[in-house]
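We were asked to recover a plausible sequence for a given structure. The inputs and outputs are reproduced exactly as logged, with field labels preserved.

PROBLEM: sequence recovery
POSITIONS: 124
GIVEN STRUCTURE:
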């Protein structure tokens, strides 16, 4: 079961790192698509996602403050599902390019990792 959590953590970390880097370094592209959040808001969300991606892996791998891993997963869950609500409100196209298609499964997987690492298979 521990291998499953690590696979999910690594996959989520890579996805959140890529998404956070895109939001941080290309905020104008994202702000053009969804105007509900200003440019600075997208940069902040990107930094939160990149920090969360690092905290999904590093504390668990280093066994230094391993409770940061489920905490990071919980924060990413809240951030992603709140962002999914914004996407649902402002992005009406039903297509694979709609960010809502990615946000909901990622938020649910982050919630699963938070629950799994906190309750089912805690670290340390």
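RECOVERED SEQUENCE:
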């Amino acid at each position: 079961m521990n291998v499953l959590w690590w696979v999910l953590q690594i996959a989520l970390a890579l996805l959140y790192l890529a998404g956070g880097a895109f939001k941080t370094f290309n905020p104008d592209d994202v702000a053009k698509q969804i105007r509900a959040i200003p440019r600075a808001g997208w940069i902040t969300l990107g930094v939160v996602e990149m920090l969360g991606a690092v905290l999904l892996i590093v504390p668990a791998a280093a066994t230094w403050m391993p409770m940061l891993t489920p905490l990071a997963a919980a924060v990413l869950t809240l951030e992603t599902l709140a962002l999914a609500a914004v996407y649902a409100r402002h992005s009406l196209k039903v297509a694979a390019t709609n960010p809502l298609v990615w946000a909901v499964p990622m938020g649910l997987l982050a919630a699963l990792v938070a629950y799994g690492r906190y309750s089912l298979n805690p670290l340390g």
